[in-house]
Amino acid sequence: MSILQDIKNAVRSRSIHVAYVDVGSCNGCDIEVLACLAPRYDIEQYGIYVHNNPREADVLLVIGSVTPQWVDKLRDIWDKIPEPKVAVAIGNCPISGCVYARRGTLTSPPVEKYIPIAAQVPGCPPRPTEILNAILSVAPLIYKDYEEKQL
Amino acid sequence: MRSFIYYVREFLRPEWIRKFFSVKTAPLETPTYFKDYPALTGKECTGCFSCMMICPAPGAIAVLRKKDEWEPEVYPGHCIRCGLCVEACPEGVLSSGRILDLTGHDRTTFASWYHLEVDDNLCMRCGNCCVSCPVNRQIDPQLAGTGTSASDEVIMRIEGGRVRILHEEKCTGCKTCEENCPNRAIRVARMVEGVHLEEAEA
Ligand code: SF4
Ligand code: SF4
Ligand code: SF4
Ligand code: SF4
């Protein structure tokens, strides 16, 4: 059992699949996530793969300060992700609403109200290195010995 | 055939195989000029609130009274790392990246004032703004409940059935008028201009 678990741990540490969803932002953070994919930061060298499919995702990056149209859809996306899963809030928007947290705006942050958030990466926008570090440090916490923890 | 052998030989080089499995981009270091969250320099804060006034992000910075001294506190998750507070602080209490070096080198600073604007289509001439304004109250204690005033020194007064702004420069930016306007007709805008200090002042 534990050998199997070790293999799973090793494989999972090099195969983190990421989906990201923008629930109403200025696009700044999306561009920083995109920069992670570019050769300068090259997220795939760490075994992190970004494809926007919740069905095969391990990590969900949530960007933006939740507009009314996203309230139920965000929940749907979260429910579609198979266990073990983890959501990371990218940027100030999902944490506090950033510059949209004013009278008269339609957004309703924080995103924690809708889905459980495991880690936050503050910044407007955060540096790609900060995003990378967050994914790399939060993913093993969730996936390591996942089956054993379930028992 | 020769090219095939060439290819196989090329890919069997230990150097190539080693690189294929282990190559990484250089460790990513944060450059020294990165404008991170403003940090305290240790200089004394006078509690002038210029930093809070200029901050564009809601809830990003608060100047707190700690024992006998003031101290600004920046909240990640709200702060957008624009660095305006660093530039606006006259005492150099905050620093971030190379902003202080650059403003020192270029001898630039901020000048700011408040601009009042009344939307005549929304305003119903109730006079709430003129009456609620604490500066108005101080200048003319006789200010009438309708917002009319005999004094020419008030910031604004009702004149001929309209709000007339006389002394915008006296506004302290408290936004009491905005809060007391039933129609959100009056708006207080903070205007900021970058200015270049003269040789003598710098
Ligand atoms: S945190 Fe800032 S950069 Fe990111 S989406 Fe919100 S407003 Fe844009
Ligand atoms: S860096 Fe900008 S957003 Fe952050 S506290 Fe200073 S003025 Fe506010
Ligand atoms: S940090 Fe600077 S700008 Fe802010 S209150 Fe203190 S002295 Fe004034
Ligand atoms: S409080 Fe508003 S509606 Fe009343 S006079 Fe002033 S601007 Fe006009």
Automatic annotation (TrEMBL), chain A:
Domain NADH:ubiquinone oxidoreductase-like 20kDa subunit: 26-137
InterPro entries linked to this entry: Complex_I_20kDa-like, NADH_UbQ_OxRdtase-like_20kDa
Keywords: 4Fe-4S, Iron, Iron-sulfur, Metal-binding
Pfam family, any one: Oxidored_q6
Cofactors named for this entry: [4Fe-4S] cluster
SUPFAM superfamilies recorded: HydA/Nqo6-like
Segments crossing the lipid bilayer: none
Matches recorded under PANTHER family: FORMATE HYDROGENLYASE SUBUNIT 7-RELATED, HYDROGENASE-4 COMPONENT I
Family listed: Belongs to the complex I 20 kDa subunit family.
Protein name: NADH:ubiquinone oxidoreductase-like 20kDa subunit domain-containing protein
Species in which this protein is naturally found: Methanoculleus methanifontis
Automatic annotation (TrEMBL), chain B:
Record CDD domains: MtMvhB_like (cd10549)
Residues of the 4Fe-4S ferredoxin-type domain: 36-66, 70-99, 114-144, 161-191
Transmembrane segments: none
SUPFAM superfamilies per the UniProt record, alphabetical: 4Fe-4S ferredoxins
Alphabetic keyword roster: 4Fe-4S, Iron, Iron-sulfur, Metal-binding
Any Pfam family the entry gives: Fer4
Protein name: 4Fe-4S dicluster domain-containing protein
Naturally occurring in which organism (per UniProt): Methanoculleus methanifontis
